[in-house]
Amino acid sequence: MNQSEVTPKNIVLIGFMGSGKSTVGRQLHQRLGYPLSDMDQLIEQTIGKKITAIFKEEGESAFRDFETLKLLEIAKQTDTRHIISTGGGIVIRPQNRSLLRKLGYVVWLHAPEDVIYQRTSRNRDRPLLNQENARERIASLMEERNPWYEETAHLKIDTAGLDSNEIATGILESARYFFTQPA
């Protein structure tokens, strides 16, 4: 029995905010034609609020609950050829880390702290960074989450210095290998 008979052929993108998950997800969607499930967008559509509003009005814990529920919905889908772009904090919960690995090929898009700060510093739609010392917050969140990204991912790609086309090419080459290997 090979890996493709056991694991759905989804490609799941994880990583810190600003690492390129949404951009690379769109690139993979264009190349493969697989439906793109951007979890943050799906949550906003389902709840009818922007993520910043969910965080402000209901808190991070409520948002994480919505995130887990959406992940469970995706896991129940029978069409198993999707690109799934997750939120940066999805790996916080052990249940989510386990679900992500069952969903398919998990790719951790990683970028150094300085690159993340540069990419996110002008965006006010990052509720966890809307504070005085965003750079310190990035450092502490990355330190906390990186072991969970590592635990969850089949592949880690450093996105600094690469464009989305180069990243997508690397993901597709390694995913092809992953899905053809014996279990």
Offer a concise description of the structure.
This protein is an alpha/beta fold.
Key descriptive features of the protein:
12% strand, disordered N terminus, alpha/beta, Rossmann fold, 9 helices
Quick check: average pLDDT? 87
Judged by helices, strands and strand pairing, the structural class is: alpha/beta
CATH H-tier superfamily: P-loop containing nucleotide triphosphate hydrolases
Shape: globular
The major β-sheet equals:
5 strands, parallel
Strand content: 5-15%
Question: Helix-strand pattern, N to C?
Answer: HEHEHHHEHEHHEH
The tally of beta strands, per DSSP, is 5
Q: Given the structure, what is the number of helices?
A: 9
Query: Which fold does the CATH topology refer to?
Result: Rossmann fold
The domain tally reads 1
Low-pLDDT residue spans: 1-5
Q: What would you note in describing this structure?
A:
- The chain is built from 9 helices and 5 strands, in the order H-E-H-E-H-H-H-E-H-E-H-H-E-H.
- With 183 residues, it is of the alpha/beta class.
- The protein has a single domain, classed as Rossmann fold, CATH 3.40.50.
- The protein has a 5-stranded parallel beta sheet with strand order 2-3-1-4-5, sandwiched between helices.
- Helix 5 (60-76) runs parallel beside helix 6 (94-103).
- The radius of gyration is 16 Å and the shape is globular.
- The model is unreliable at 1-5 (pLDDT under 50).
